[in-house]
């Protein structure tokens, strides 16, 4: 969830106890910008997680778990999506078939 400081927080169950992690402050995601919208999460094949959100730059940020470590990717700056307009709404993520993810958000044409 997006906390009061506009950071991405995770309340999690490890099989025996509840815990809390501020994903935005992990050293592996230290470059992740603050949230400007609420996150959406999807479990991807192989136990991967993707937490996508609209950041303060109106870009789509992805804090992701690859099965062993957390990481961060600014999806809006990837060369394959460089022509995507700024995000205006909060993203939603869905897994389509095995190995495909779709992230949908309202666009803000400048």
Structural account:
The protein has 110 residues and is mainly β. The protein has strands spanning 9-13, 18-22, 40-44, 48-54, 60-65, 70-74, 86-87, 92-96, 100-104, 107-108. The chain has a four-stranded antiparallel beta sheet with strand order 3-4-5-6, with no helix packed on it. Strands 1-2 form a two-stranded antiparallel sheet. β5 (60-65) and β6 (70-74) form a beta hairpin. The mean pLDDT is 85.
Features:
110 residues, mainly beta, 4-stranded antiparallel β-sheet, two-stranded antiparallel sheet, 0% helix
Q: Helix and strand succession?
A: EEEEEEEEEE
Number of strands: 10
Q: Cα distance, first to last residue?
A: 28 Å
Report strand %. 35-45%
> What's the total helix number?
0
Q: Which structural category fits the helices and strands?
A: mainly beta
Which segments are poorly predicted (pLDDT under 50) over 5 or more consecutive residues? none
What is the helix fraction of residues, given as a range?
under 10%
Mean pLDDT: 85
How is this structure best summarized?
This protein has no helices and 10 strands. The protein has 110 residues and is mainly β.
Secondary-structure blueprint of this entry?
Elements: E1 9-13, E2 18-22, E3 40-44, E4 48-54, E5 60-65, E6 70-74, E7 86-87, E8 92-96, E9 100-104, E10 107-108
Antiparallel strand pairs: 1-2, 3-4, 4-5, 5-6, 7-10, 8-9
């Amino acid at each position: 969830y997006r906390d009061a400081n506009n950071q991405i927080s995770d309340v999690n169950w490890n099989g025996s106890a509840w815990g809390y992690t501020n994903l935005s402050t992990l050293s592996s995601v230290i470059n992740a910008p603050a949230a400007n919208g609420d996150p959406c999460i999807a479990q991807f094949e192989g136990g991967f997680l993707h937490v996508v959100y609209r950041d303060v730059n109106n870009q789509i940020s992805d804090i992701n778990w690859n099965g062993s470590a957390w990481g961060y990717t600014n999806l809006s700056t990837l060369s394959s999506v460089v022509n995507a307009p700024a995000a205006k709404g909060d993203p939603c993520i869905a897994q389509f078939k095995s190995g495909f993810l779709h992230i949908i958000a309202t666009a803000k044409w400048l």
